[in-house]
Structures are given as structure tokens and as C-alpha cells.
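For consistency, the fold was encoded as C-alpha cells, as this record shows:
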Amino acid sequence: MERVRLGYVGCGFMAQKVHLPNFAAIPECQLVALAEVRRFLEERAAAVEEVIFVQFGDAAYRVYERLLGESGLEEA
């Protein structure tokens, strides 16, 4: 079965503790891009971005519109 290439927007508590680990556990799902939208939470967003960039490199976005324009995504 082919894997679905997924981009995920939002990296808060539920994403980190529930949604992202669950997507990672699904063999048919390939998480290829992440973005955080809550720029007003600068300190938290910076900490989340640091973790995301370590795991995803260029596939982590500070602006979610860029994630949505990412070619090759099948779902966001």
C-alpha cells in the first residue's frame, strides 16, 4: 500500500503528545512537513520550532502558508 504524504499544521500539546505520535505509528502515513501558526506565542513557538527543525529540517515551516504550498503533499 502506498504511503500518504502528510503535512501537519499546529505543534501544540495535543499535536506533540497525541496526534503526531499516532500519525508516526501508522505505516501508511508519512509525515513530511510541520508548521506552527501561533506566532504570538513566541517563546513556546521557538522551542517547538527547535525540536521540529531537528527532526524535519527543511520540512518544518514557520509560516503555515508555505507548508500548504509544499509540492508533493497529499493531505494537510
